[in-house]
Amino acid sequence: MLPWADTVARRFPPIVVWTLIGVNLLAFLYQVGLPPRALDRFLFDFALVPSRFFGRLSLVAPSDPTPFVTNMFLHGGWLHLIVNMWTLWIFGPAVEDRLGPGRFVLFYLFCGVAAGLAHALANPESVVPALGASGAIAGVIGCYARMFPAARLVVIVPILFIPLFFEIRAIVFAAIWFATQVIPGLLSIGDQATGGVAWWAHIGGFVAGWLVTPLLKRPASAYRHHYRDEGVYGFLPDGRREGGIGPWT
């Protein structure tokens, strides 16, 4: 289930979202340009290797906390990068618009660090470098769902290679997405294996984003009222349809 579009009106250009996408792209281009041995060393130093903090490697190869930040700007391949940046592009602008650029940067980094910490604590002996922006973006999804629960999302569900488009409320999308992370996350407990999806990074990032949203959201007095024509296709500024119930945000 891939998000395609949302209905929340924005007033300001998403400068931070654009910047994050650009930084992630540049970091990935640098990463793929490294020769194999240099790439292995680069990932060991700047991706997140849990065992260097909470496992046996901490005794022989300790690390400073830098990878908890740098890992969220690295990716494992073009598909990994594209899916993450597309998801950030869908959910990030509305969140940045409501938090403001400065708070959004702090929020994004906080969720990314929380995601890395959750992954490392759930897999303390793993020596596989974890990398990707998905933990921080999971926090953005959690924030979006909390601020705009009744907003409508258009999502793509591929059926036998045929893309079908559906409309779904943001809170329903978030609940389904979160369930698809928790179930395999619980099943992976105790498996220090070899890689794959960092389920607990997604869980930790989402929970962090959901919990801190009320602390960072700008007060109504600092955010002017939307004009009615700032909505699209008959939607109110918070993404609800005309005639829906619930407060404006």
TrEMBL record:
GO terms for cellular component: membrane. GO terms for molecular function: serine-type endopeptidase activity. It is a multi-pass membrane protein. Its main location: membrane. Coiled coil: none annotated. The chain crosses the membrane at residues 12-30, 73-92, 104-122, 128-146, 153-177, 197-216. It comes from the Bacteria. Residues 67-216 form the Peptidase S54 rhomboid domain. It is found in: Membrane. The keyword Manganese does not apply. One of its GO terms (biological process) is proteolysis. Keywords: Hydrolase, Membrane, Protease, Transmembrane, Transmembrane helix. InterPro entries: Peptidase_S54_rhomboid_dom, Rhomboid-like_sf, Rhomboid_protease_S54. PANTHER family: RHOMBOID PROTEASE, RHOMBOID-LIKE PROTEIN 10, CHLOROPLASTIC. This is Membrane associated rhomboid family serine protease. It comes from Tepidamorphus gemmatus.
